[in-house]
Design brief:
mainly alpha, 1 helix, rod-shaped
Length: 90
């Protein structure tokens, strides 16, 4: 029975340390998840605002065909490079 006493105290001492460590770990993971959600939302809004500046859908040269999107500039149609398109016409 004397052999079990030190092991019992060791296990009991470790349990007393695990409670605050697990508590802090759980809250840290929760906070990191919320921070990642907020950052992803900001990035999505920023990207959506930039995509709204692309004028291709209102251009007369836009064909709305997946093979040939634009008859004048097919490589930059519907990309960020098309924001300042010199050939844009309504």
């Amino acid at each position: 029975m004397s052999v079990l006493n030190p092991i019992y105290y060791l296990i009991h001492g470790i349990q007393q340390l695990l409670i605050p460590i697990c508590f802090l770990t759980a809250w840290t993971v929760t906070i990191l998840v919320f921070v990642n959600i907020i950052n992803a939302t900001r990035y999505t809004v920023k990207t959506a605002q930039k995509m709204r500046e692309i004028p291709c859908h209102n251009c007369q040269f836009f064909t709305n065909n997946y093979r040939l999107k634009c008859t004048v500039n097919p490589y930059i149609a519907n990309t960020e490079e098309a924001i300042g398109c010199k050939d844009y016409m309504r």
